[in-house]
Specification:
Elements lengths: L8 H6 L2 H8 L19 H17 L3 H10 L4 E6 L5 H12 L3 E5 L13 H11 L2 E6 L4 H10 L7 E6 L5 H14 L10 E5 L6 H10 L6 E5 L8 H9 L4 E4 L2 H7 L2 E4 L25 H6 L5 E3 L20 H19 L3 H6 L3
Parallel strand pairs: 1-2, 1-3, 3-4, 5-6, 5-8, 6-7, 8-9
The structure holds aspartic acid.
């Protein structure tokens, strides 16, 4: 059962992510997170529960009566969207998820419009938000900030849950949830996700969605992960360390065509040049072999899918967009449903929605 008040920040910050998990769970003991900070908080049982709830919300929302029922579920709650890093889909899909559940929202998308511009610390700003809102959905370029805020808030007079909508180069747990939801839906009638081969391609070094999804995939049996990237952008050691520890099969390479032939899903990512240490650093890397185009499409299995967390630049050619295996647009919409499922669960409404008469 989660309780961040029984551990000091210093002791908490020294724990491994898996050790941190129980401190972040809902105190009610239903296994769902209270603070959602990283992928290590989700095991298979939880993933399947969330995806089932997302499907249920999706279904209920189809009728006007059902949609109105959902709009009442959390009409007594307010959420703050605090995004101090650019975002389109993550911001809008969290907003839409809140709207589906009737949650009133407020937002700050630019620290220049908040008191941070006057020198207020993140800590003070977030404590301010918690005075007016019941949940904080936050994106920050700072790795670990969401975690620190979760601890601070849990130890304040007005604890409210934090939902990490992307932290630095580190984690993007809700993107990984929507990726898993997309994989489960895509392979639902085709034997499921166990035993599949997933290729990650692009900037695997700085892509936070890759770190989070690679971890979530370890919850499935016999899933092989292939990492295709230029040497300078290959998947970092901590991700590989987890795969080794869990005995997950993986391959590191640079041949997208070869990987495409054997993959059930190819997960493309953009070059994350906002993290360049010097101007134009990424532009010097030859990324030409790490793009998915007509030739790769011709090699892709008939039931395999192409995924991308978006935004895309040129790493997936436009000619792929209308192929039924291009899953990135549906993946984006799946984000709204799984985020609605997660938010409803954080507030303890999983059973109520699952068991409602719609
Ligand atoms: N939208 C994803 C993220 O926020 C992927 C990306 O930006 O390339 O990490």
């Amino acid at each position: 059962m989660g309780d961040l008040t029984i551990i000091s920040w210093d002791d908490f910050s020294r724990l491994t992510l898996t050790e941190k998990r129980p401190y972040l769970a809902r105190p009610e003991g239903d296994g769902m997170p209270y603070h959602t900070l990283f992928a290590q908080q989700f095991d298979r049982e939880l993933l399947e529960r969330l995806c089932t709830l997302a499907n249920r919300i999706r279904f209920i929302n189809k009728s006007k009566e059902g949609a109105l029922y959902l709009k009442n579920v959390l009409a007594h709650k307010r959420a703050m969207l605090y995004f101090s890093q650019p975002s389109s889909r993550t911001f809008l899909s969290h907003l839409a998820a809140c709207q589906i559940l009737g949650i009133t929202t407020g937002s700050v998308r630019d620290a220049a419009t908040s008191s941070e511009f006057k020198g207020e610390s993140h800590e003070d700003s977030i404590r301010t938000f918690s005075s007016y809102f019941d949940m904080i959905i936050m994106r920050s370029p700072e790795q670990g900030l969401a975690e620190k805020m979760a601890w601070e808030l849990s130890n304040s007079e007005r604890p409210v849950p934090i939902l990490n909508a992307g932290s630095g180069k580190d984690q993007h747990p809700t993107q990984a949830l929507l990726d898993i939801y997309t994989l489960l839906r895509s392979f639902e009638t085709k034997g499921g996700v166990d035993g599949r081969t997933i290729t990650f391609c692009g900037d695997l070094l700085r892509g936070r969605t890759v770190r989070s999804l690679s971890y979530l995939l370890t919850n499935f049996r016999d899933v092989k992960q292939i990492f295709v990237a230029p040497d300078a952008l290959q998947v970092p050691d901590d991700v590989i360390g987890i795969l080794k520890e869990k005995g997950v099969k993986y391959e590191i390479g640079s041949d997208l065509k070869a990987a495409t032939r054997v993959s059930d899903a190819v997960y493309m990512t953009r070059i994350q040049d906002e993290w360049d240490r010097s101007k134009g650093e990424s532009a010097k890397i030859d990324t030409s072999r790490f793009k998915f185009g007509a030739e790769e499409l011709a090699l892709l299995g008939k039931d395999a899918i192409i995924m991308h967390p978006l935004p895309r630049r040129d790493e997936i050619a436009l000619c792929c967009d209308h192929d039924p295996r291009a899953m990135y647009w549906r993946q984006m919409r799946n984000g709204m449903w799984i985020r609605a499922a997660l938010i409803a669960s954080v507030f303890g409404f999983e059973r109520k929605i699952m068991d409602c008469g719609y």
